[in-house]
Amino acid sequence: MSKFKDYFSFESIRDRSGEVVCYHVTMIGTIEADGTARIRTDLGTDGDKKMAFGRLTVRGCDKKIRVLLNETGSRIYYHSYDEEDGALDIISFAARDWRADEVYNYNEGDRVLIEGRAYMRKASDSSMDGRPEMTVTVTGQFLLGRRRRQFFNNMIPQEDI
Using one digit for the tens of pLDDT, what is the confidence trace for 16-39? Predict the structure, then answer.
């Protein structure tokens, strides 16, 4: 179990008639090895726009996440539950322009806060259940802490002669 407290919340933004316009998501979690951001710099009509795509690992917030997924009829990138470790959810996010540079600099093990609008990406052909994937478009991000690097992990002790 992680010594850090992860967080997930959302609120629905409604128009005057009460219809949901969008969902605003706030989440705190860890960037894991397979979640480090990839950046594309060839987007836009002129090929001069950039976006970063990554994934945030959130532990122990599956009930709140499930409420949003049930309300939108969507899924997240990955979900698992283990009796010993509890719930583990991996949520995709995308950032544009200067925010892309910021999230691209996050490293494995970084604790981050990401907030933004939830949007539903069309289900791929390989999707098992045909539901769209919920992804967060980053409107704000904050680095909470970096994992300490241990330089001696790969060293082998010298044998006594």
Answer: 998 888 899 999 999 998 888 998
Contact 106, 67 (CB under 8 A): no
CB 24 within 8 A of CB 88: no
Tokens 């001696």 belong to residue: 152
Sign of the C-alpha dihedral, residues 7, 27, 81, 12?
positive
* 20: CB partners within 8 A, 6+ apart: 12, 13, 14
Bridge partners, residue 92, by sequence:
55, 135
Looking at the whole model, is its pTM more than 0.70?
A: yes
Give 30's strand partners.
57, 111
- Distance (Å, whole) CA 94 – CA 50: 10
